[in-house]
Amino acid sequence: CILGPSWWRAHVLYCFLPFDKSIFGQIKDPLFWVFTVLSMITSCGIRIGFYSFLLVFILMEDPDEFQLVQYITLLKGTYFLSAGLIAGVRTAVGYLMCVHPGGCHTCDIDGPAYALHLSTAAVDLFGSGALTWAAFACLRWSVHH
What we know:
Blueprint: H1 5-16, H2 23-26, H3 30-38, H4 46-59, H5 65-98, H6 107-110, H7 118-138
Helix pairs in contact: 4-5, 4-7, 5-7
Keywords: Membrane, Transmembrane, Transmembrane helix
Transmembrane segments: 31-59, 79-98
């Protein structure tokens, strides 16, 4: 059925987790870029919501072992980039911007720790861990090729 759940599953999984395209084939697809941006936004649980839907799409039919392993590595890789490197650069720039010449600083008012949202970071950390372990637990029932 066109535009049925199986069609959406196939379309999303092929755009974001294709089995026969390299990264050079993927970057030509605009939907790949939309999914990539969604997978990097850590605020408001957007990244966890995106990966939750992706896991549901993988598990809708018989899950493939390759797709589950690729899902786990992609989830952990984007967590490293979004919550690790990007957050580290943002924090370093924030500290540089709040320290002024002459030794005075306003880091207690507008520093990076002042703008830290602990709830968003906690949702991203625990959601990432829970999705990783859920996908790992589903490997037992996956189809091996």
